[in-house]
């Protein structure tokens, strides 16, 4: 008995010194109405609730912000801390930095945690080029936590007391956690007299970013210097791959920006609407560059004066949107029941159980969990980039808000065709996925933001499983995972990708009844899903009716402009056979037969500018019941 008691005490002590977390709310928690300058390393989202220590710290390196300045210090006015629960008290101390550890105590304060977002003032003024903020706040796994957002983990620390005689501050990154504490400082930079710094802290477009819509730039500027600035302006350049569209505007700041103050340009400004502009009628990728200029440019560090953003003025609708649930079996009913309360027919829910040994778990689910760099459950992902961490009483509101946000998205993929081909006496199926971009102009240069090059293809085999009293789709295995497209998919182009589907002894009848193939394109940098759809196993194309190596059509000079030639051929060099051309009204304007492997069109052969459709009814795919239709554009 004595041994058991001793072991229990040791176990309790070991748990008290172990850093761990539970999922946070995932909500943005930074107050949006503050006009003060806040310096922090976190993202402002309540992603993780940590426990296991009673001392938490952040190291602030202000000198690194202005490396060329002789003096780069920060004058602290108050500390900003977000905690997920109220009650108890917190002691906050500021220390000098000595050998990358807290040194001399500068000032401190202890306050009651009366609200989640704390603003803590100090009795002494602090101005340093670097400092440590140390918060003494006891935490435990039963409900007292500090909050953190996703980040590098290199600035946040906790007191590691695994060896009680030698406690030390260990960074979150070193402990294996990619998170930054929701600790920050409010104040002003103090720079040497040669530095006059204006910072472009925010820039975006207000309005619906779709073809033909009117949008207006909005931005914010902070004056870090000790002198008023009266001649600032924003030089806005809007670029696109469309040679007929480019836009420039100079937006003057009509007010004097007082020292250490924030200026905002938004719909409250009287001249806001004077700077709106209309997006091109044709779907297009946009690149926007906002540059902050003034007569002090020579003394103003330029690193924080430019914002470069990319926006997609797309027009095509998604066939479906994806909701991905990452679950443990014990919380699956909680999440699915909450989602079942909403009628969202365009959203398809895919379920993953990544903890091996859990019911319905497998390596495919674990791979997807790791692709997102998750480290806690449950998680909900909507359209790839909209995420809910954990489950709370506010889950339903978050879920509906993010689904509404996703529904506003458009894509550059105008259509897709996933053809599944059965082979006699074979334990695998062949598949061919063709993606079509009818009219959206994209950047395709190595020096531009190439979304096709950044896109990754995922094709998953999902099985119909029953849990929580309903049939739901659960990952079975990946057919294609994180595959680069390795091709061009600009306006009026198509891209075909071939892959195999191993059956693993699944009868075709069971495949048709209980399985579905979901496929999507997902950005490798932002995670946003750019296109998603699915294919059923109810309509196989027999291999005897269609050549496995499906001939692909090559079309050059599309769009076709005056003085150019459009050349059309098959990649296998065989004859095209019958060729038909239709206009947008469905009227046939050409119908002829050729024995040649290539045909050539000029713009003079078409009555008007616009979109036309080519059909080749004698190609093998068409004879199998899948007429091949290709869109071409004529620009005289």
Question: Keyphrases for this structure?
Answer:
Jelly Rolls; Immunoglobulin-like; 6-stranded antiparallel beta sheet; disordered N terminus
Give the helix/strand layout.
Elements: H1 2-16, E1 20-23, E2 38-40, E3 48-51, E4 55-61, E5 72-82, E6 89-98, E7 101-112, E8 117-128, E9 130-136, E10 146-150, E11 156-160, E12 168-171, E13 179-181, E14 183-191, E15 198-206, E16 214-223, E17 233-239, E18 247-252, E19 261-265, E20 277-278, E21 284-293, E22 306-313, E23 321-326, H2 329-340, E24 347-352, H3 363-371, E25 379-382, E26 386-389, H4 395-407, E27 415-422, E28 428-437, H5 451-454, E29 455-467, E30 470-484, E31 493-502, H6 508-514, E32 515-523, E33 529-535, E34 541-542, E35 553-556, E36 560-561, E37 566-570, E38 577-583, E39 588-594, E40 598-601, E41 610-615, H7 620-623, E42 629-635
Parallel strand pairs: 23-24, 24-30, 27-34, 36-42
Antiparallel strand pairs: 1-3, 2-14, 3-10, 4-9, 4-11, 5-8, 5-14, 6-7, 6-9, 10-13, 11-12, 15-16, 16-19, 16-20, 17-18, 17-21, 21-22, 23-25, 25-26, 27-28, 28-31, 29-30, 29-32, 32-33, 35-37, 37-40, 38-39, 38-41, 41-42
In short:
This protein folds into 4 domains: 173 residues, Sandwich (Jelly Rolls), CATH 2.60.120; 116 residues, Immunoglobulin-like (Sandwich), CATH 2.60.40; 234 residues, Immunoglobulins (Immunoglobulin-like, Sandwich), CATH 2.60.40; 86 residues, Sandwich (Immunoglobulin-like), CATH 2.60.40.1930. 10% of the residues lie in helices and 45% in strands. It has 7 helices and 42 strands.
């Amino acid at each position: 008995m004595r041994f058991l008691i001793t072991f229990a005490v040791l176990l309790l002590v070991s748990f008290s010194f172990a850093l761990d977390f539970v999922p946070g709310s995932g909500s943005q928690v930074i107050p949006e109405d503050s006009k003060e300058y806040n310096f922090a390393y976190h993202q402002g989202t309540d992603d993780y609730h940590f426990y296991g220590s009673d001392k938490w710290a952040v190291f602030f390196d202000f000198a690194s912000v202005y490396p060329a300045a002789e003096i780069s210090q920060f004058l602290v006015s108050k500390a900003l801390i977000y905690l997920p629960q109220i009650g108890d008290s917190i002691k906050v101390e500021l220390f000098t930095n000595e050998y990358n550890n807290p040194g001399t105590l500068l000032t401190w304060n202890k306050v009651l945690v009366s609200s989640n977002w704390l603003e803590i003032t100090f009795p002494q003024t602090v101005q340093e080029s670097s400092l440590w903020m140390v918060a003494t706040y006891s935490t435990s796994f039963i409900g007292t936590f500090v909050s953190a957002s996703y980040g590098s983990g290199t600035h946040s620390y906790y007191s590691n007391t695994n060896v009680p005689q030698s406690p030390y501050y260990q960074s979150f990154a070193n402990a294996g956690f990619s998170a930054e504490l929701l600790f920050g400082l409010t104040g002003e930079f103090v720079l040497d007299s040669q530095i006059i710094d204006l910072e472009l802290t925010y820039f975006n477009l207000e309005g619906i970013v779709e073809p033909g819509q009117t949008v207006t730039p909005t931005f914010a500027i902070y004056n870090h210097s000790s002198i008023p600035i009266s001649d600032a302006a924003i030089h806005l350049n809007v670029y696109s791959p469309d040679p007929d569209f480019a836009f420039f505007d100079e937006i003057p700041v009509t007010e004097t920006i007082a020292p250490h103050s924030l200026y905002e340009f938004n719909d409250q400004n009287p001249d806001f609407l004077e700077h709106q502009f209309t997006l091109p009628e044709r779907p297009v990728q946009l690149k926007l560059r906002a540059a902050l200029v003034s007569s002090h440019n020579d003394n103003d560090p330029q690193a924080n004066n430019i914002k470069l953003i990319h926006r997609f003025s797309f027009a095509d609708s998604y066939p479906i949107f994806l909701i991905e649930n990452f679950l443990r079996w014990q919380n699956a009913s909680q999440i699915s029941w909450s989602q079942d309360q909403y009628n969202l027919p365009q959203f398809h829910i895919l379920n993953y159980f990544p903890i091996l040994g859990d019911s319905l778990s497998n390596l495919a689910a674990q791979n997807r969990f790791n692709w997102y760099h998750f480290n806690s459950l449950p998680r909900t992902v909507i359209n790839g980039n909209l995420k809910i961490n954990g489950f709370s009483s506010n889950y339903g509101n978050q879920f509906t808000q993010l689904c509404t946000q996703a529904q506003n998205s458009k894509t550059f993929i105008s259509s897709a065709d996933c053809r599944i081909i059965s082979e006699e006496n074979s334990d695998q199926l062949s598949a061919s996925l063709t993606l079509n971009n009818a009219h959206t102009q994209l950047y395709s240069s190595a020096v531009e933001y190439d979304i096709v090059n950044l896109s990754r293809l995922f094709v998953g085999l999902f099985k119909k499983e029953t849990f929580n009293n309903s049939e739901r789709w659960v990952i079975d295995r990946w057919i294609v995972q994180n595959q680069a497209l390795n091709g061009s998919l600009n306006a009026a182009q198509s891209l075909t990708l071939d892959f195999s589907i191993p059956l693993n002894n699944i009868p075709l009848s069971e495949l048709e009844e209980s399985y579905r193939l979901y496929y999507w394109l997902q950005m490798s940098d932002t995670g946003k899903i750019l296109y998603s759809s699915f294919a059923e196993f109810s309509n196989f194309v027999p291999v005897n009716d269609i050549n496995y190596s499906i001939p692909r059509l090559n079309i050059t000079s599309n769009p076709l402009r005056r003085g150019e030639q459009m050349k059309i051929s098959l990649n296998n060099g065989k004859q095209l056979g019958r060729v038909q051309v239709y206009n947008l009204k469905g009227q046939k304007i050409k119908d002829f037969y050729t024995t040649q492997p290539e045909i050539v069109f000029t713009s003079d052969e078409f009555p008007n500018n616009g979109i036309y459709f080519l059909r080749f009814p004698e190609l093998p795919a068409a004879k199998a019941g899948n007429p091949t239709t290709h869109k071409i554009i004529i620009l005289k």
